[in-house]
Each structure stands twice: as C-alpha cells, then as structure tokens.
From TrEMBL:
PANTHER family named in the record: HLYD FAMILY SECRETION PROTEIN, MULTIDRUG RESISTANCE PROTEIN MDTA
Domain YknX-like C-terminal permuted SH3-like span(s) in chain numbering: 342-409
Statement: the UniProt record of this protein carries the keyword tRNA-binding: no
Originating species: Agrilutibacter niabensis
Family indicated by similarity: Belongs to the membrane fusion protein (MFP) (TC 8.A.1) family.
Protein name as catalogued: RND family efflux transporter MFP subunit
Presence of the UniProt keyword Transmembrane in the record: yes
Domain Multidrug resistance protein MdtA-like barrel-sandwich hybrid: residue ranges: 83-229
Length: 414
C-alpha cells in the first residue's frame, strides 16, 4: 500500500450515523455534585455554627499607692463654691450698659455694668462749684485781713505818739482779729466743700459696678434700662443684682454623713471623689473639716472636702459620690507596695457558695477564677489575689455560664 492509499484511510466518513451517548459519565457527574453538597452541609454543621455565648467584659486595672486604700465610708453630696457673690450696685439707678455674659471670666476690679450717671454728675458739679466758691471766699478774707493787719500796725505807732486815740487803735485790732476768725471759717468751709466733692465723685464711681474678685459669671440678672437697687426698694420691678460670679478656685465638696458613722471620718483623711457626670474620673481629695453641728431633721453632720484637682469640668452644684479611704500605717503601706493589688467592677463578681469568683476571658473561653477581695472603691472592688492587671473579666453574661464555655465579646463592648 502506497502513501496515497494510507491518506484515504484517514478520511472521516461523514455519511456514517453518530455513535450513541454513554450514560456512565452522567451518573458520575450527579454523584460528585451530591457528595459536594453533603460535605458542605456537614462542614457548616461542624464549623459554621457559632455556639459561643455573647458577653460583656471589663479590664482589670492596677492600683497604685494612692488608690490602694479601701473605703471605710461612702457618701453623696454636691460641689459648692466658698466664694460666690451676686454683684449689685451700691446705689439705686437705671442700668445703662451690661458688659458681662454667662460663662465669661472676669478679673478683680473689671467693670461689669454701668448705671446712668446724670444725677451723680450733677451732684459732683455742684460740689465742685461750692468748693470753688469757698476758695474764693478765702482769697477775699485774706486780702481784707492783710489790710487790717497793716492798719493795726500803723495805728500801733501812732497811738504811742498820742496822735490817735486808744479807741481807734482798739477798733483796728478788733477788725483784724475778726478777719482772722473769718479766714479760719472760710478755710474750714473749703475743707468741707472738698470733702463734699470727694463724696460726689464717689457717687459717680458708684455708678460703675466692678467685680469684687476674679471668677466666672454664672448668671446675668439685669438688662439695660432696668432699675437696680441694693435694697430692692421697687419690689418685684427692681433688680437687686447685675450678675453672679463664682471663684472656681474655691470649689469644694460638701457631704452629709450620718451621725452613726461620723466617727469614721477624721480631718486630713484621704478621700476619692467621683462626679455623677464623669463616673470614670476619680478625683483625689482630702477632708478639710467636720462642721461641729448636726442636722436634727436628717440626723447628719456636714463634712467639707477639698478637691486636689482643679479642672474646668468641675462646676458648682454638681452631684458627687465620695469614698472616705482608710489611712494605712507604714507597715501596711510597705506590704501594699510589695504585693501588687488590682481592682475590677463589682458587676464582674459572682458567688459560688461562700467563695467569690469571676470569669476571665482566655482563648475565647470563660475561665473560672476564685478571687480574694479587699475593700470597696466606689463602683469597683479591690482584689488582693486571683486576677492580674490587664486581664478581661466578664461583667454581663447568662447565669448559666460555666467554666470552659466558648464566649464572644459583644460588639460595642466598653
């Protein structure tokens, strides 16, 4: 067979019928798809389903030497200012201009408002005119006295020569002495007129209302055109003040302590204050004094507390919770420094019989820990043993939570 015959054998016979399709491949494809579906369902059941319990956590924080004292007493009170004044004018008058606004800081002597000075200016001008008249009177009497003294001296020589009568000389002496008395009267009248002018000038100055000390304006009480008076002579139509200022450096805390527990409080005792507006901000403080009187109706004693931190966020009349801290001796302080102590929110604590426990998040699981507690620190509790600073303890979780359960920290956890 030559090459041409071999090429003819390789030709495709298009007239022949196509071969029948095989069903074996179809069944293999369907079986593979079913197997993949089963594997997907099993994988979701094993790996895709999340059985973790959603919880909320908080971090355990370390206590330093200043914050390691336990609370012996908790109380509530308010921030008060020792220096606060409603500033008013010394005289009754109509307000011409008010130069303050709420929240503005003023310095001592700064002008807060002015009153209409028309009457005071008129009184000052009258006093100035009276002083000028009295001085003119002095000049006139001095001129007359100069002439009278010269006349008396001349008559003194003539009377010795018997050229004039003794009566003429006596009249000259009397006129001289009268003018001397008039001069003294005029000088005293001039002094009175000068004092009147100074009083009138003070009256003009009284139309200017100044700040008695440096502080912040917390209330603006008057407007231009209103009548103000320190005595409120006009009743409800008369203002008694221009504005109220507070010395923010004089802020302190006043709390009412029950008579039954006042014995636990001592002067210079360390205190921790927490403002209701800023519950996470712990302000160091100290007892200033225990007011030596009791409220019969409430059976309480007032305690003054000094804040050791000055901050614009602290304003008068804010609610505050304070914890009176125990005063540790040197041995206790040394032991406290040798043994690191921590604090955690009281919400994280649970009871297991007589034992205090917490759940710590470790490797996405709840780990049960027994803890040894110290004193109260406001909303927190001091922990002497069982947890370390930086660990996350569970504060909110189902009551059925147990050791080893898988947990998931809730979104937005603080």
């Amino acid at each position: 067979m030559n090459n041409s015959d071999l090429l003819k054998e390789l030709r495709i016979d298009r007239s022949a019928p196509p071969p029948a399709p095989s069903r074996t491949g179809l069944w293999i494809g369907l079986g593979s798809a079913a197997a993949l579906l089963v594997l997907a369902v099993v994988g979701w059941a094993v790996f895709g389903r999340d059985d973790a319990v959603e919880v909320k956590t908080a971090q355990v924080t370390a206590l330093d030497s200043a914050g390691g004292s336990a609370s012996v007493l908790d109380a509530t009170g308010y921030v008060v200012a020792r220096r606060m004044a409603t500033v008013s004018a010394k005289i009754t008058g109509k307000v011409r201009e008010v130069l303050i606004e709420e929240g503005q800081r003023v310095e001592a002597g700064q002008v807060m408002a002015t009153l209409d000075p028309i009457d005071a200016d008129a009184q000052r001008d009258l006093a100035a005119s009276q002083l000028s008249a009295s001085r003119s009177q002095i000049n006139m009497v001095q001129a007359q006295l100069h002439e009278a003294e010269a006349n008396a001296d001349r008559l003194s020589g003539l009377v010795q020569q018997q050229l004039v009568s003794k009566a003429q000389y006596d009249q000259a002496i009397a006129a001289r002495d009268a003018l001397r008395a008039q001069l003294q009267t005029a000088q005293r009248n001039s002094q009175v007129a000068g004092s009147g002018l100074r009083i009138a000038a003070q009256g003009v100055d009284n139309t200017i209302v100044r700040a008695p000390f440096a502080g912040v304006v917390i209330a603006k009480a008057a407007q231009p055109g209103e009548i103000v008076s320190p005595l409120s002579a006009g009743g409800g139509f008369t203002r008694t003040g221009i504005g109220t200022i507070v010395d923010m450096d004089s802020l302190e805390v006043e709390v009412d302590v029950s008579e039954a527990y006042i014995g636990r409080v001592q002067p210079k005792m360390p205190v921790e204050a927490v403002l209701n507006a800023y519950p996470d901000w712990r302000i160091p403080a100290e007892v200033i004094a225990i007011i030596p009187t009791a409220d019969r109706a409430k059976a309480t004693v007032k305690v003054r507390i000094a804040l050791k931190s000055k901050d614009p966020r602290i304003v008068p009349d804010m609610g505050v919770r304070v914890s009176f801290l125990e005063q540790e001796d040197k041995k206790a302080a040394a032991a406290a420094q040798a043994t690191p102590r921590t604090q955690l929110p009281a919400a994280a604590l649970r009871k297991d019989g007589e034992q205090d426990i917490v759940f710590v998040v470790h490797d996405r699981k709840a780990e049960r820990r027994a803890v040894r507690l110290g004193g109260n620190l406001g909303d927190n509790r001091q922990v002497l043993a069982g947890v370390s600073a930086g660990e996350q303890v569970i504060t909110e979780a189902p009551a059925t939570l147990k050791d080893g359960d898988a947990v998931r920290v809730a979104t937005g956890n603080n």
